[in-house]
Amino acid sequence: MADPTGLPAVHRGEGTGQPPEVDTSRASIARVYDAFLGGKDNFASDRVVYDAIIEIAPQCAEVAKANRRWLNRTISYLSAYVGIDQYLDLGAGLPTVENTHQTAQRFTPHAVVVYVDNDPAVNAYGRALLEENDRTHFVTADLTDPAVLLAHPTVTRALEFDRPMALIQCATLHHVDDEANPAGIMRHYIDTLPSGSYIALTHWWDPADGSEGSALAHELERRWRTSSMGTGRYRTREEILSFFDGLELLEPGLVELDQWWPAGPPVRKLSLVEHLILGGVGRKP
Length: 285
Ligand SMILES: C[S@@+](CC[C@H](N)C(=O)[O-])C[C@H]1O[C@@H](n2cnc3c(N)ncnc32)[C@H](O)[C@@H]1O
Prior knowledge:
This protein is α/β, with parallel strands linked by helices. It has 10 helices and 8 strands. 37% of the residues lie in helices and 14% in strands. Strand 4, helix 8 and strand 5 form a beta-alpha-beta unit. The structure holds S-adenosylmethionine (SAM). S-adenosylmethionine binds next to helix 1, helix 3 and strand 2. Keywords: Methyltransferase, Transferase.
């Protein structure tokens, strides 16, 4: 029978000591996100979720694109202006047009980037592209288990924990359920980072004010969670702020993505769904 993944055996992890094969029968957030970004590394099960979301929020692809623009602006700022030269990019996702190491190394050629993801498709497709040079590394690990992740030999070899670094949690924690204690997970990372380190984080937002936007956040959350992907949380501003506990939040704070040091004035009015994500950057004193 034909292999439904279409991937060569090595990409399915056979005999490689790599994580399990890509399961195309259920959607995965890495591949659904790829679909929203217009990528090709997604399957029918992912596009079912994509369609269910687009049905009520036709501009949802713009959220993914704004999130990538925010990530690029943040990395540019940290590498060009702050001088950060070590990056731990958690839940890095499938490679796309401008990845963290490309931005960081453009400004700081010696910058080291460690990408982490637990999705088999990212492992299969992403590793080769993301490990583009000897200063970029890919680790398969679960970001909800900071103790194990931070002790991974690639992480401890590549990053110097006695010097400031940046930890990236871009569009990741809204896929971590409340039961997994995302604030506790962040506390562990923040406690471990050296003083002078930065955390860059974006997260789906529920304005929780009885507005049309809040109602949309609830319905989107219901659709994500009842899909075969099974995760997705729109949290309140206070809940998201709790992930920065112990950090100094940089100006302009935790704000809608295009309000965080935008490249210029808006060129159009945003649709409702584009307001439902916030981003912020914190510095450990
Ligand atoms: C929406 S994508 C965001 C990708 C990228 N950070 C960005 O902002 O463009 C979320 C990524 O987080 C990864 N992810 C989700 N839960 C994870 C976990 N527990 N451990 C590691 N990676 C995880 C997914 O596999 C996916 O690649």
